[in-house]
Amino acid sequence: MDRKVVTILLDIWDGPIWGCTYDEKTGKYDYEIRKIDEDKKLMSLHQQIQDLYSSYYTFTDKEVITHEEQEKKDKDKMLSLLGKLKDRLNEINDGSFVIDDRETELVKKL
Asked: Is the pLDDT of residue 1 over 70?
């Protein structure tokens, strides 16, 4: 069986779990992995992380302002959420995917 790669990568628009499409009509993500798509706890963590990370950016007409000091202050909170996200992914993993975490070590260095 080919296993899919579930990438954890912070992005202002896409949230931490990459490799999905977002259906604006239904408001749902499609990861092509049913266990991920249907897990409400996982999707809640995904949204919490996305909201926190997005809060570090403000857009104006002329520029993007980054709030790096706030990101540093929130380091422990973000690490906790990322840990919960990975724990939940591991809980529901039936062997059909592997996790590629590209963020935890970067956040630790803040």
From this structure: no
The answer to whether 25 and 64 have CB atoms below 8 angstroms apart is: no
Q: How far is CA 3 from CA 17, 33, 54, in A?
A: 16, 10, 30
Per DSSP, the three-state class of 5 is strand
Each as own residue / partner, the long-range contacts of residues 35-44 (CB below 8 Å, 24 or more positions apart, any chain) are 35/92, 35/93, 35/94, 35/96, 36/6, 36/89, 36/92, 36/97, 39/88, 39/92, 41/88, 42/17, 42/85, 42/88, 42/89, 42/92
Task: Kindly state the average pLDDT of the residues 54-67.
Answer: 90
Contact yes or no for 66/57 (Cβ under 8 A)? yes
Give helix then strand counts, H and E, for the chain: 5, 7
In this prediction the pTM is: 0.87
Mean pLDDT of the chain: 90
